[in-house]
């Protein structure tokens, strides 16, 4: 944790946003046929949300990524009802979506102490099973983290998101004059002296077609789903990924960012948005800004990207 003026900034490094785990419920205990005794049920495997947990911590602590619950106790003369096997709990961060090997959602953990049963223990041996125990459920699960943040920084590569983050905090993201310097999401927290907190997620740059998973689009777009507000960071001079791709003006960039979010998940259109127009120190920036303002105020008058809808009008920040 580092201090920046009157606020503290907490930075989270070595970011991991997905893990694949093997889980197995405990086997049941043997029954006791002669006296009709029942074996204990095997333990269950649960995924449990903890605020201070990260997927990296989970991976480091359990490098085998294998979680097996305890076996139920066998029935015996002095304990005809076998005791239940010990449950296994997998600690995960808040904001986890749990899916099976086929991509089916098992459940989501959106607040601390939320829990999901992922592998059930087997029944103990009893009359209905001829006193033979059942094995526990085996299941491979995927943990998929979607960042929960107050503000998500969204833009095309080299728009200046990392530079903006470095100026409002003591975070030290990679900054360079080329695209894709941010290769993984960065989550920071600004803590004010009166204990108010604002969390900011700096998301890797999108490219056209991100909604179709181009440029690892889905891996980055999923984090936008759980941010409360978006901040579009746009280069006033426009954007061109390479000499082989089409140049886009600042206005076209805003349209494309809006449309990429809508095509990925329409519900994202309901999130409040701020617009930060960046690199205003470039030559001719003021003239380009006046053109952009006119286009934003009269979007229907602009014949631009006719296959896309007009952008919503975000509140404006000038940088």
TrEMBL record:
InterPro entries: G_OBG, GTP-bd, GTP-bd_Obg/CgtA, GTP1_OBG_dom, GTP1_OBG_dom_sf, OBG_GTPase, P-loop_NTPase. GO terms for cellular component: mitochondrion; nucleolus. GO terms for biological process: ribosome biogenesis. GO terms for molecular function: GTP binding; GTPase activity; magnesium ion binding. SUPFAM superfamilies: Obg GTP-binding protein N-terminal domain, P-loop containing nucleoside triphosphate hydrolases. Pfam families: GTP1_OBG, MMR_HSR1. It is found in: Nucleus, Nucleolus. Its main location: nucleus. Residues 13-148 form the Obg domain. Keywords: GTP-binding, Nucleotide-binding, Nucleus, Ribosome biogenesis. Residues 149-319 form the OBG-type G domain. Belongs to the TRAFAC class OBG-HflX-like GTPase superfamily. OBG GTPase family. PANTHER family: DEVELOPMENTALLY REGULATED GTP-BINDING PROTEIN-RELATED (PTHR11702), GTP-BINDING PROTEIN 10 (PTHR11702:SF43). This is GTP-binding protein 10. It comes from Panthera pardus.
């Amino acid at each position: 944790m580092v201090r920046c003026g009157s606020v503290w900034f907490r930075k989270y490094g070595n970011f991991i946003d997905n893990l694949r785990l093997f889980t197995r419920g405990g086997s049941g205990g043997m029954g006791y046929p002669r006296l009709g005794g029942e074996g204990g049920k095997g333990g269950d495997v649960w995924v449990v949300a903890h605020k201070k947990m990260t997927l990296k911590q989970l991976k480091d602590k359990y490098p085998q990524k294998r979680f097996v619950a305890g076996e139920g106790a066998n029935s015996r003369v002095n304990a005809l009802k076998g005791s239940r096997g010990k449950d296994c709990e997998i600690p995960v961060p808040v904001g986890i979506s749990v899916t099976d090997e086929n991509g089916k959602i098992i459940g989501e953990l959106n607040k601390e102490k939320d829990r999901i049963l992922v592998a059930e223990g087997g029944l103990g041996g009893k009359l209905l099973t001829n006193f033979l125990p059942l094995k526990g459920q085996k299941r491979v699960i995927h943990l998929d983290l979607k960042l929960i943040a107050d503000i998500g920084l969204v833009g095309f590569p080299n728009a200046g998101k990392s530079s903006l983050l470095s100026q409002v905090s003591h975070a030290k993201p990679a900054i360079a004059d080329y695209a894709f310097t941010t290769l993984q999401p960065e989550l920071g927290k600004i803590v004010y002296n009166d204990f108010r907190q604002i969390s900011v997620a700096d998301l890797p740059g999108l490219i056209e077609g991100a909604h179709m998973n181009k440029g690892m689009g889905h891996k980055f777009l999923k984090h936008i789903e759980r941010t409360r507000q978006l901040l579009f960071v746009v280069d006033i001079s426009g954007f061109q990924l390479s000499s082989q791709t089409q140049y886009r003006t600042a206005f076209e960039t805003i349209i494309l960012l809006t449309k990429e979010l809508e095509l990925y998940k329409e519900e994202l259109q309901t999130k409040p948005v701020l617009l930060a127009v960046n690199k205003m120190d470039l030559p001719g920036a003021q003239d380009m800004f006046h053109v952009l303002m006119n286009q934003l105020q009269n979007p229907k008058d602009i014949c631009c990207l006719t296959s896309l809808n007009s952008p919503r009008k975000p509140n404006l920040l000038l940088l």
